[in-house]
Amino acid sequence: MVSRIGILTGGGDCPGLNAAIRAVVRRADQANVMTFGFAAGWRGVLDASVEQLTLSSTRGLLHRGGTILGTSRVDPYREPDGVARIAQALDVHRLDGLVVIGGEGTLSAATRLADEGIPIVGIPKTIDNDVAATELTIGFLTAVRTATEAVDRLHSTAESHNRVMVLEVMGRHAGWIATYAGMAGGADAILVPEVPFDMEAVGRHLRHRAGSGRDFSIVVVAEGALPREGTMEVPEPPKDEFGRPRLGGIGHAIAHEIEHRTGFPARVTILGHVQRGGSPTPMDRVLATRMGVEAAELAMAGTWGRMTAFEHHEVVPVALADATAELKTVPASLYRVAETFFG
């Protein structure tokens, strides 16, 4: 019988994490199951740094951004004796299993750990919305709201100065934020990692608008977007501590090319970490709450190796392995809808 559950939040922060924590604690408390929070993601589990979570300590969290548990990008498989230390932390604190709230990286580690016998239930959170087997991830809709508001605000200054405004949003390998915010905000071009772009075609779009009497344009670009091979030079990005490209700045290169190819003045706004912060939208609060309750119920039933997923307006369990088998990218059918409004 399950009586003690651990919780951690890993990877980048996003709105809705606290709502999910609150929901797990609330549902577990109803069944007299104790919950414990690990600080700073997998780092807290590796260090066996744990604190009991109660109804009192999780009150007032629903609207708060960030995570009261803290987070990190620590990968237990990059740490000495990582798997053994995690198993030991669960044993020391007499925990029956873990609820892991994370994105693709955190949940990929969770999948490997589950395969090695660590009892885990996952909850998907990432503003990039790139976790497979779920239609939505916690944090995505709030990030889209923030990016859409930026597009709306840039419209007025673009029109006032007859400029091209380039808005760079997050999206390393998947252009969900760019596509949704670009469509919602009425962008005139949306550039995403899934579809290598041709700057000459972008320039033609903008010149066509100008020739039709529309002397301003909005271009939304995901940070991971790349040009079609041989069409534009892009500097090699520096690497982070994990050897991954440190993205950010493609917007400046695109603005430079727009000015060079069209003669139109172009300005850049890089939205950056603003997309991660702030209060979650009502939909993200509800999604996080539903996923938190479902995760608690799966854990209390001893149904490990699963992740909560949003499918057809329902929150259902799916296999962790299915959720992390591949990245969920923007489908061609959705991008074709967005292309209807380019130019």
Describe the structure.
- The protein has helices spanning 17-30, 42-46, 82-92, 104-115, 140-161, 176-185, 199-211, 250-262, 282-300, 320-323, 332-339, and strands at 4-9, 34-38, 50-53, 97-102, 120-124, 164-169, 189-191, 217-222, 266-270, 306-311, 314-319.
- It is α/β, with parallel strands linked by helices and 343 residues long.
- The longest helix is centred in the middle third of the chain and has 22 residues, at 140-161.
- The protein is 38% helix and 17% strand.
- A seven-stranded mixed β-sheet has the order 3-2-1-4-5-10-11, with helices on both faces. A four-stranded parallel β-sheet has the order 7-8-6-9, sandwiched between helices.
- Strand 10 (306-311) and strand 11 form a beta hairpin.
- The chain has two domains: 4-139 and 280-323, 3-Layer(aba) Sandwich (Rossmann fold), CATH 3.40.50.450; 143-275, Phosphofructokinase domain (Rossmann fold, 3-Layer(aba) Sandwich), CATH 3.40.50.460.
- The model has no long low-confidence stretch (mean pLDDT 95).
- Helix 1 runs parallel beside helix 9 (282-300), helix 5 crosses helix 6 (176-185) and helix 7 packs across helix 8.
- Residues 4-298 form the Phosphofructokinase domain.
- Catalyzes the phosphorylation of D-fructose 6-phosphate to fructose 1,6-bisphosphate by ATP, the first committing step of glycolysis.
- Its main location: cytoplasm.
- The active site is at residue 128.
